[in-house]
Each structure stands twice: as C-alpha cells, then as structure tokens.
Amino acid sequence: MEKVTSGIRGLTVVEKILARASGKQAVRAGEVVEPDVDLAMSHENAALVINQFAEVYQGTGLEPLPWDPSKIAIVFDHRVPAESSKTATNQKKIREFVARHGITRFHDIRGDEGGICHQILPENGYVLPGSVVVGTDSHTTSHGALNAFAFGIGATEMASVWALGKALNVEVPRTIRVVVNGQFSPYVGPKDLILHLVGQLTAEGANFRVIEFQGETIRAMSTSGRLTLCNMSVEAGATSGVVPGDEETVRYLREEAGCRGPFTLVTPDPDAAYERTLQVDASALAPQVACPHTVDNVKPVDAVVGRKVQQVVIGSCTNGRLDDIAAAAALLRGRQVARGTRMLVFPASSRIFQQALERGYVADLMRAGAVVMNSGCGPCLGVHQGALGDGEVALSTTNRNFKGRMGNPTGEVYLCSPETAAASALTGVISDPRKGA
Amino acid sequence: MARVIATLGDDVSTDVIYPGRYMATVLPTETPQFAFADMAELNAKLKARQVPPGSVIVAGKNFGCGSSREQACSCLKGWELTVVAKGFARIFLQNSVNLGLNLVTAPEVEAKEGDELEMTATAVVDKTSGRSFAVVPLPKARQAIVDAGGLIPYTRRRVLEAAGRR
C-alpha cells in the first residue's frame, strides 16, 4: 500500500533533539531556535567564562548566579598539573567559583576521578541520549557518540548559557549522512575511518553541518570508536557528529557509565532529509595518515612509510581509551621502542589509566621504553610537555596537525591510529601496522 | 579606505592565529601581543604599531578552523583588524560575532598586500586592482547580536527581561 504522507519530510537525529529542547513539534534545518542546555562543560577556560559571566551582570543590580549549577561540568585537563603560576592561579580562581556555586560535576587534578573532559563526561554518565551539550572546546562534538547534540562554543557564549540556560540564536544545521558498511581489516579501525572521511569531506566540507553516522559498521562499533568518529567530525568543520541511539548506547550508559535514570534513544525518521549521503566500505580501508599541516591532507600509510619520527604520541580525547592503549600494548609487548624515537602515552582519564595498570598494559608500554604520563591534553596542543624540537617530526593519535600545534612551528605532526603509532614507535619510521614491525 | 596588511591562504587555524602555548593568557587586554605569534614578521608589524586600526587581513576558505579558543578573536580585535575571507569556520565566526571582531565574507575575494579596500554592506572593492567582490551578509540571527553590540549586552538585555518577568 502506498504510504500516505503529509508532504512533510521526517526529521534527522539533531532536528529531533533540537525540536524537543526548543519545545517544538518539529524544527527544520535553517530555522533559528533557542534550545535549553542540558549540560554545559568547560575546562581551564572557565577562568575566562567566569570573567565574561560577571560582565553580563555588570550594572544590572542582579546577582550573577548560574541558572542551574547541576548542569555545569568543569574539568581540568589542558594544563595539568599546572605548568605555570598563571595557570595555577586560574585553576585556583575556578575552584573558588565551583565551591561558591555548588558545582558538583567538577573534576580537579586527581588520580581517581580526573582526566580529559571528553572522556570524563561520557564515563560518568553526564551525557544522555537526546540531550543538548555545549562545551568551550571544539572537540565537544565527541558526545554525539552518545546520541546527544553536542557542539563547541566560545567562552562568552558559555557565559550566556550560564546566565540563561539556553544556547541563543542556534541555526538548526543541515545534516550530512555517512553510511558505513563492511568489516574493518585487521589493524584498521575507527581512526582510519574518520581520517579517510575528513580527507574526503575536506577541512571545511561539513562547516555549519552535522555528520550523522549510520550503517552496520557503526552499529557494530563500540562507544569508544564512536567517540573517535564524533570527536574528529569537527576536523571537517562539523558543528557536531552524531550516532543514532541503539543497543550499544544503552549498554555503555548502563554498564560503563553507571547510568540508572531513564533516557530515550533518538533515531532518525526513515524519510529524514539529508543534504547528502556518503557511502563508505570499511573493508576497503587501509591505515590512514593525515600529513602536515592540515587534517584533511590524508593519505594511505603506504604513501608515507619510512618517514623518520622523533616522537610518537598515543593518547588524547581522540585515542586515549582502554582499547587504544590495549592495541598499542599488544604491539609493544616484549619489544623495544627504537632509539632516537621517544614515545609518550597519555590515557584519556585516570580511570582508564588505572584499568591499563590493572591489565598490565602500562608495564608492557614502559618496559618497551614508552613514557606513560598523567591524563591530560598538554602534548596535543603544545601547551604542556611533549613539545617538538626545531624541525622534528611527530606521529600522533591526537586530532590536529596544524603548524605549531605541538609547540613548535618548525615541527611536523602526522596523525594516525594507535596501531600505526605503536608499529612506528618500534621502527622509528612511519610503518604499516599490517606488515608486522 | 582600509589597507591590506597581510594575505593568507585557506584553512588558517586558530593555532596559527593564537598558538596554544599562550592559552593561559585570557584577558583581551593581554592577548593581542600573541596574535600570529609564530608568524614573526606579521606579529612584529602589529606590535610595532605600524598597523592603523581598521586594517585588513585577507584570507581564503575556512579561516579560524580548529579550536574554540576565544583568544583567536580577542587578539585580532585588540588591534582593531578586519578579516575579509572567502569563508570562516563556524566557531570562529560565532566568537567574532559575540566579541565584535569585524568579519567580512567575500567568497571570491582576491587581493594583495598593500591594496586599498573600500568596504560596503554588499561589496569589497579593491581600489588598487579595480576589482569588486560580493559580500555574503551575516544570517539575521547573528546580525541581531552584532547590532546589540555583542553577546554580552545582548545577554544582559535578556537577563533583565527575564528578571522583569519574575
């Protein structure tokens, strides 16, 4: 029987989330809405948010009180432990604000509950399906892995969210659908997929748009892998990446994130309108490498095999989770990092660090010569430890390779998967993990 | 009339505009000294105050891609620069609207250092080369924030309205 339609197309995941959060039946790409914010995350740049927040109330005679402290999360990760007195003083100021306003989702510099914001939020069950998450960090896109609409904003916009509890003047983004089918080859995984996609879409190809990930490969993928995909969606310019809610979303939230409360999964309507659809066959993918100095300068590993590297980095919000560390440990166990190459590993959270200790991965890595560092962002963006020397080359599982990114404008950064990084640490040159080091 | 002080290519990242290692500096009064810190010549030119307010940087597509750091906007605003580009990355564009950094989107723009530009609401005219480039206006929702003088006064008004309703 022919399906009767009203002539109105269905909704994408993000259109559904924004409709709910704006109190509407439906919203369409291009429409301007003011969604209620469910979670507002900042890291050390909360210091600037606090300044701007006070500025909003200047001359109003009103007391600057955040709309709902239970919906604010603050995580110290960019420069931990503090690399300078300036940072330490900013962190002190933030602690005072947190105490004054009773912000409980605060993750200080601690070995039990600290870590990188984009791991802390999911692993503590702060991000729920269907929610609107804003963060003063561009990689806030990560949280779309848990079926949320999550996007990065600046500090002043966060001050506005703290005041009103809404994101103002949000244009509903168009959605690009990426359908991934097929099984990855051994030593190929989510990081290779997202590098390939950023290369295909280009650095601005998804600007002002959302990437919705669908297909059998995505359904079979762990939340850890989905976080990697959504994390790097911003490298194609995307406002957010998002995965339709499914059994894996429920499993992760109940079993790993300790969520007890109710939530509702959001899936797209079958007749949702996408701006375009990309099909990817995961089984045809080789390990991928993003070459200096843009993330969309992506090549199969073959093209750069043999390039000498002085520093290998495994970690970050992109690839610092337990499966990433396990993959590296499996390749390094009983072997040695090449002389002349230093290998730095920084787990995405203290919890992951502890799990890696319990499973013996940390010992495997250290015996091989890797330096295992506390959880944090520092080396990825060149703010704290792991800076490159003049003209040095790094191979890293992080998310950006812009000129100057690792603290030195004459350095070069190549991006890859944990498997490619570990295989290359053993040889001291960029190597194909499928060929055995 | 405004002079072009630098021409940059596509995908100029916030790491290039304001390197990560200066991110502990947040005050808009202190960030300008680190604008383009790794481009020694441009940075020196700014710090030597050889650049009059209203001077222009011309860039390609996707200017401001990468990090959400607001310092990348406040450091340029501090020197009262205008950025004319073929396109801007979303967060950078939004931050600039919020802070009042003047951005002009002209998808076809081509200019050389030293060129004199005349800017109207609809076009960027290069008086040196004689060429004219159409301007894409800001969406209405963003223009409303610019018209209010930035996001802080815009939000302040909303806070006062909400307080009035209570």
Report on the structure:
- The complex is a heterodimer of chains A (437) and B (166).
- By secondary structure, chain A is an alpha/beta fold.
- Chain A folds into 2 domains: 13-280, Aconitase, domain 3; 288-435, Aconitase, domain 3.
- Helix content of chain A is 31%, strand content 16%.
- Chain A has helices spanning 13-21, 46-57, 85-101, 117-123, 155-164, 190-201, 216-219, 223-231, 247-256, 316-319, 322-332, 350-358, 361-367, 378-381, 418-427, and strands at residues 32-33, 39-42, 72-75, 105-107, 132-135, 149-152, 170-171, 174-181, 209-214, 240-242, 276-281, 288-290, 298-300, 311-315, 342-346, 371-372, 393-396, 412-415.
- Chain A has a 5-stranded parallel beta sheet, sandwiched between helices. In chain A, strands 16-15-14-17-18 form a 5-stranded parallel beta sheet. In chain A, strands 10-9-8-11 form a 4-stranded parallel beta sheet.
- In chain A, helix 11 packs parallel to helix 15 (418-427).
- The longest helix of chain A has 17 residues, at 85-101.
- The radius of gyration of chain A is 21 Å and the shape is globular.
- Residues 1-6 of chain A have low confidence and may be disordered.
- Chain B is α/β, with parallel strands linked by helices.
- Chain B folds into 2 domains: 2-135, Aconitase, domain 4 (Alpha-Beta Barrel); 137-166.
- Chain B has 6 helices and 7 strands, in the order βααβαβαββββαα.
- In chain B, a hairpin with a 4-residue loop joins strand 6 and strand 7 (131-134).
- In chain B, helix 3 packs across helix 4.
- The radius of gyration of chain B is 16 Å and the shape is globular.
Please give a quick description of this structure.
The complex is a heterodimer of chains A (437) and B (166). Chain A has helices spanning 13-21, 46-57, 85-101, 117-123, 155-164, 190-201, 216-219, 223-231, 247-256, 316-319, 322-332, 350-358, 361-367, 378-381, 418-427, and strands at 32-33, 39-42, 72-75, 105-107, 132-135, 149-152, 170-171, 174-181, 209-214, 240-242, 276-281, 288-290, 298-300, 311-315, 342-346, 371-372, 393-396, 412-415. Chain A has 437 residues and is α/β, with parallel strands linked by helices.
